[in-house]
Write a structure and sequence with these properties.
heterodimer, A: 2 strands, 75% helix, B: mainly alpha, 74% helix, 0% strand, globular, Branched-chain amino acid ABC transporter permease (chain B), LivM-like (chain B)
Chain lengths: 295, 297
């Protein structure tokens, strides 16, 4: 039983970071109908920004976390302004958007390699990260608690923004229908940029979280999380933001349980197996809703 | 000439192999499906043929057939349920397939050698065989385009609903195309497996699928020569940028971004001087333009 509880604790902290990333990824899909495969690279940018701020500038981690979010958001906006925006105005085919986003990801990874090299870097250890408590045979690390708490905080802030503000209403109108949004006076261009910023900032936040949790940052770390993001996008119902948050937690738990009870090597196969089956059985995802309920 | 060919033998082999893969991706793109199954199907062809060579000493020609047939059967089994799904969801389902194949190859150590892969494979693949295969494939697709089946494909590409309305069995045509594309990937995998001494799971991942699509889109979807030209340019370009591994990646990704932005119809839409010298049949111009119009839609 305590093994099960231990796995649950581990799964929840891992899954909460997945959820943060996946919520941003899902927001882009739900609001702008964009499958942005460069999100993983933006995640990596966030992880490196946080790392360098802590290592070189010696900022405290919470501050570095916020700056990393803003930087990743800015990079995400930049990709929209430089590549995805012009492509859309030219009426590029959807496939072109996919290919362009992959090329942007490749570009960011190549630049990161040039700047930071290819070796795995680590966040410097801090006392609270090492702290751990044992409750009823279950070890809870300070690190896991912080990741879980920041994840909940970030997602709560997003929920407030989307549900309780004028801006959120505008974004949700765009998710419903961009033409309607334009007609009722939503500044579509500005809201598009804001959506890219939010998605990038969430990816950056997840980058710092997983960078600290795994204690490893490398230019290639975006690929794995991108695949997880795709899995969660489908599990959560393609564009359904609360569904993505829930599915992110679920994926974290599933992975940890499958390592605990099956075998670590098939951890990734479990996620993809789920994706495959869900796409066949419920093409609109586990929590799939109609388009009008997106975001 | 022969000296030049020897020093660039690997590049030439890659250009030809990638041309074959580009055509496999092209076939799926012209029936409106963004298939990321290429890498997975190729892996199946590669492992089946290499295992046949290593464990049973099957002659090379037969392993090519074996790789192609196995991948085609797999494409049939995969395609029957998955082809119903549309758009991004189809892309994601085929991506999941490719990743599952990779994970199985990575973990089924007793058969595939796991992450270490299979080493000491006899290198049977010759340049002339690849060239012959690519030429035959190009000719075959060209012939299909001019046949009744080609008109069915063109109708599906133009408007699926209209095609269905005039009595075309869209699902069946698409499944057949997927199986053909799978067979091509399988044979390409078998060639790739016998090209070097080694195969491993990371040789056939998502990147392989994406690159194949990039060849086709980069070259142009207006005709079968598009993916071949795309594979040529996209494979030779990195070799010319060999002076720095990172600068190469940066330049390559910039090239793709610029190509997507400024050449949405691909390389073959460029009005190269060469094209004026090529004999042009009557009416071909109109046909090409119509095909490209759909591709750029």
């Amino acid at each position: 039983m305590s093994v099960f509880l231990q796995q649950t604790v581990n799964g929840l902290s891992l899954g909460s970071a997945y959820a943060v990333f996946a919520v941003g990824f899902t927001l882009l899909f739900g609001v702008l109908n964009v499958l942005n495969l460069a999100q993983g690279a933006v995640f990596m940018v966030g992880a490196f920004t946080g790392l360098e701020l802590v290592r070189l500038v010696e900022l405290p981690l919470p501050l570095a976390f916020l700056v990393a979010m803003v930087t990743a958001g800015a990079v995400s906006v930049l990709t929209q302004v430089a590549v995805f925006g012009p492509l859309e105005r030219r009426g590029g085919h959807r496939w072109m958007g996919l290919i362009a986003s992959l090329a942007v990801a490749r570009l960011l990874v190549a630049i990161a390699q040039e700047v930071f090299g290819t070796q795995v870097l680590r966040y410097p250890s801090e006392p609270w990260m090492e702290a751990s408590w044992t409750i009823a045979g279950v070890q809870i690390q300070g690190l896991q608690l912080i990741v879980l708490a920041t994840a909940l905080l970030v997602m709560a802030a997003l929920a407030v923004l989307l549900r309780a503000t004028q801006t959120g209403r505008a974004i949700r109108t765009m998710a419903f229908n961009p033409n309607v949004a334009r007609l009722v006076g939503v500044p579509v261009q500005r809201m598009t940029l804001l959506t890219y910023f939010i998605a990038g900032a969430l990816a950056g936040a997840a980058g710092v979280q997983l960078g600290v949790l795994y204690n490893a940052v490398s230019p290639f770390m975006g690929e794995t999380i991108l695949l997880k993001g795709l899995t969660v996008l489908i599990l959560g119902g393609l564009g359904h933001v609360p569904g993505a948050a829930l599915a992110g937690l679920l994926l974290g738990l599933t992975e940890v349980y499958s390592v605990g009870y099956l075998s670590s090597s098939f951890r990734d196969a479990v996620g993809f197996g789920l994706v495959f089956i869900i796409l066949l059985v419920r093409p609109h995802g586990l929590f799939g809703l109609t388009t009008r309920q997106r975001a | 000439m022969s000296e030049w060919l020897a020093s660039y033998e690997n590049v030439v082999a890659l250009v030809l192999l990638n041309g074959i893969l580009g055509i496999a991706a092209y076939l799926m793109l012209i029936v409106n499906r963004f298939s990321l199954a290429t890498g997975g199907l190729m892996a199946i062809g590669a492992y089946v043929s290499v295992l046949a060579t290593m464990n049973f000493g099957v002659p090379f020609a037969l392993t090519l057939v074996l790789g192609g047939v196995t991948a085609a059967v797999m494409a049939l089994l995969l395609g029957a349920p998955v082809l119903r799904i549309e758009g991004d969801y189809f892309a994601l389902a085929t991506l999941a397939f490719t990743e599952i194949v990779r994970i199985i190859a990575l973990n089924w150590e007793s058969v595939t050698g796991g992450a270490l892969g299979i080493v000491g494979i006899p290198t049977e693949t010759q340049i002339w065989q690849l060239a012959l295969a690519l030429a035959a494939l190009t000719a075959a697709v060209f012939a299909v385009h001019r046949s009744a089946a080609g008109r069915v494909l063109a109708a599906i590409r133009g408007d699926e609903m209209a095609a269905a309305a005039i009595g075309i069995d869209v699902a069946r045509a698409r499944l057949l195309t997927f199986v053909a594309s799978g067979a091509i990937c399988g044979v390409a995998g078998a060639f790739a497996g016998h090209l070097n001494f080694f195969i491993g799971p990371s040789d056939f991942g998502m990147i392989r699928s994406i690159d194949a699509i990039v060849y086709a889109v980069f070259g142009g979807l207006g005709g079968v020569l598009g993916p071949v030209v795309g594979a040529l340019v996209y494979t030779v370009l990195p070799e010319m940028l060999r002076f720095s591994a990172q600068a190469r990646e940066i330049l390559l990704s910039l090239v793709i971004i610029l190509a997507v932005l400024f050449m949405p119809r691909g390389l073959i839409s460029l009005n190269l001087p060469l094209r004026r010298w090529l004999p042009r049949r009557r009416g071909q111009r109109g046909k090409l333009a119509a095909g490209q119009g759909v591709a750029a839609e």
